[in-house]
């Protein structure tokens, strides 16, 4: 693919310059790609009705075409232009959680090209809660298919500069509206199977969905990560993977976990390895005087803050070229389920 110049255009989230949005919308309308902010992470958008444009998302991201994309709309009524035979519960959930970080899997409308859905008959739909995303979709006059705007298997971008690191030279424009609020991707809820199932935990919590869908299920891989059987090192499903080896420490007794981390650091340093630490504000003192690069993520009871910082901290500590990154697994209630999921996918090894 020939490299092009990538423009990063700053825009105010609260008082956006409409001319910039129109410029971006023209790119979408002419089959090009634009990276834009949502409340979760930055997305890499194309006209969802333009199969060729959608295909270029896969080549730019180096993403396998077997992994389907989310279609973003800006008005609840547009759901029926991308999906069909929509169950009543979808409208109810949309009323409760849209705009917001909930993606619904529904039966696909025939107008949505198969390249969006990876040849499948279902489509993922979401109405993002970011004013710039909404304006862009409205000005483009089409739904926008968008995965996270990272190179395949890299952490999702929560800043425009992350998009540039991964996709600079490959796309014409990045709209920069600052850091994304949530920092973790949307919850993916499959309404096409009974009972409905969470395929990916995210910004809308299991607990919130269970109030409306008491029979809701969660993909087994997200349940009870503390006790799940451990694949051999390096065999974990690689996603969000830093260059360094991420060692995750889990266990019910915080003191024991911290001690185990400290022992591991001592051994690694003895072995002349460099060590990075993703650490909560309350744990950091425990590691003082140790020769590690550390990044603070917020207090351990503030899962929103940890979620918001996670991908940016992972990228930043990885850029320091450490051999290993260590982190203590946060609790798995609330947003913790989504944080644990992203960590497990990024991990080289889970130590418990
Ligand atoms: O927060 C988000 O969801 C961000 C922002 C940009 O909206 N987007 C995002 O897209 O994370 P992506 O492509 O990185 O992740 C979409 C997830 C993938 O795990 C994909 O397999 C799943 O949604 N997905 C998409 N369409 C699906 C379908 N028809 N059936 C099952 N899973 C689907
Ligand atoms: Mg992604």
Characterise this structure.
By secondary structure, this protein is an alpha/beta fold. It folds into 2 domains: about 5-220, DHBP synthase; about 245-350, Rossmann fold (3-Layer(aba) Sandwich), CATH 3.40.50. Helix content is about 30%, strand content about 20%. It contains 10 helices and 16 strands. The protein has helices at about 20-30, 50-60, 80, 90-95, 130-140, 160-165, 205-210, 255-270, 305-320, 335-345, and strands at about 5-10, 35, 45, 70, 100-105, 120-125, 145, 175, 185-190, 195-200, 215-220, 245-250, 275-280, 295, 325-330, 350. The chain has an 11-stranded mixed β-sheet with strand order 1-8-2-3-7-4-6-5-9-10-11, with helices on both faces. The chain has a 5-stranded parallel β-sheet with strand order 14-13-15-12-16, sandwiched between helices. Helix 1 packs across helix 5. The longest helix has 17 residues, at about 255-270. About 45% of the residues are buried. The model is unreliable at about 225-235 (pLDDT under 50). The chain binds threonylcarbamoyladenylate and magnesium ion. Magnesium ion binds near residues 147, 148 and 156. Threonylcarbamoyladenylate binds near residues 43 and 126.
């Amino acid at each position: 693919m020939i490299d092009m110049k990538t423009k990063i255009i700053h825009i105010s989230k609260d008082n956006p310059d409409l001319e910039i949005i129109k410029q971006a919308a023209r790119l979408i309308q002419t089959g090009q790609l634009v990276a834009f902010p949502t409340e979760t992470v930055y997305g890499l958008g194309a006209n969802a009705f333009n199969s060729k444009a959608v295909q270029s998302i896969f080549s730019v991201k180096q993403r396998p075409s077997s992994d389907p994309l989310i279609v973003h709309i800006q008005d609840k009524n547009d759901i029926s232009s991308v999906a069909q035979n929509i169950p009543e519960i979808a409208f109810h959930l949309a009323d409760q959680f849209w705009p917001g970080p909930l993606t619904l899997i529904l039966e696909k409308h025939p107008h949505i090209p198969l390249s969006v859905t990876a040849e499948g008959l279902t489509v993922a739909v979401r109405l993002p809660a970011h004013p710039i995303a909404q304006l862009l979709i409205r000005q483009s006059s089409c739904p926008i298919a968008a995965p996270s705007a990272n190179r395949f298997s890299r952490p999702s971008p929560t800043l425009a500069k992350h998009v540039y690191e991964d996709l600079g030279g490959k796309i014409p424009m990045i709209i920069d509206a600052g850091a994304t609020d949530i920092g973790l991707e949307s919850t993916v809820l499959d309404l096409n199977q009974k009972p409905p199932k969470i395929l990916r935990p995210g910004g809308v919590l299991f607990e919130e969905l269970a109030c409306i869908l008491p029979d809701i299920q969660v993909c087994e891989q997200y349940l009870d990560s503390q006790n799940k059987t451990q694949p051999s090192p390096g065999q974990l499903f690689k996603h969000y993977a830093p260059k360094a080896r991420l060692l995750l420490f889990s266990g019910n007794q915080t003191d024991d976990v911290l001690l185990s981390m400290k022992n591991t650091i001592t051994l690694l340093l003895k072995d002349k390895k460099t060590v990075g630490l993703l650490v909560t504000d309350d744990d950091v003192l425990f590691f003082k005087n140790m020769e590690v690069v550390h990044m603070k993520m917020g207090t351990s009871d503030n899962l929103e803050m940890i979620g918001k910082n996670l991908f940016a901290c992972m990228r930043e500590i990885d850029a320091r070229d450490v051999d290993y990154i260590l982190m203590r697994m946060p609790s798995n209630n609330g947003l913790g389920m989504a944080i644990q999921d992203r960590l497990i996918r990024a991990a080289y090894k889970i130590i418990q």
